[in-house]
């Protein structure tokens, strides 16, 4: 698969029969809806695209996630939700026999998944667990992290549901599970294994469960969602409604690059032009162009007149930057501006 942006002459909802959709920063932000999300997903389903919501959040039960999505106008069954808790439980199965003791540091979703995998859940290092399963929960405290550290220090296998350093909320970005895992790692010196994105484990589980002809991964974070798509060999769509920005796209490392870029989930209903290079070295998408000259990103003179053209400018900038870097050239990061894509107005 190409290391750059690809194109689609038809709407993505018509091309892909399965979408693996991230939650925080894509379908909602905290407990608030994201404009265009419900409409985009509803219309994509009407065109035949099936959805599985794949989240690094391990604190909640699939039923709870499905209920929240349904309340936000995205009718969802629990079987259409795949959580990092379920992936962590599958990772435990690779080394532990059923009946083994596991110290769970996290929310009810992780407790349920570990129990369902056949393990005995304990809450103290003194119970001599053979593994620690750690996931995010908003009420975790020092004592919980201390128990995890004591168990890991005594030899328990440390499994993290995910390593996201931040968590998008309605008020901004808060510490994510990776930040809490870091406290245990710093205390013990032991690096945990992780089941969540960017490992493609959850994506593969979701595809196996749903079956698919062609799968699209949709996310807002380059270092987890889109890196997982690259690692698993799936086409990845970056929507600009969450953590990673358009500027991050331009500067992305090859293993974290999206294949497609859209403003939000309504981009599922649109074709996506593939940037083209002309004889003068300009990369163009629509009427927007970009090139790199002596390591400096040049966005040309045309200013985007619409939101769609703002996205086209991002695509052209990515194509120019990535082609330069992949050919062994340099790109001065300070020459890359914040490429604003206006929020959709309801």
Automatic annotation (TrEMBL):
One of its GO terms (cellular component) is cytoplasm. GO terms for molecular function: phosphatase activity. InterPro entries: HAD-like_sf, HAD-SF_hydro_IA, HAD-SF_hydro_IIA, HAD_sf. Pfam families: Hydrolase_6 (PF13344), Hydrolase_like (PF13242). PANTHER family: 4-NITROPHENYLPHOSPHATASE-RELATED, D-GLYCEROL 3-PHOSPHATE PHOSPHATASE. This is Haloacid dehalogenase. It comes from Cellulomonas biazotea. The lineage of its organism: Bacteria, Bacillati, Actinomycetota, Actinomycetes, Micrococcales.
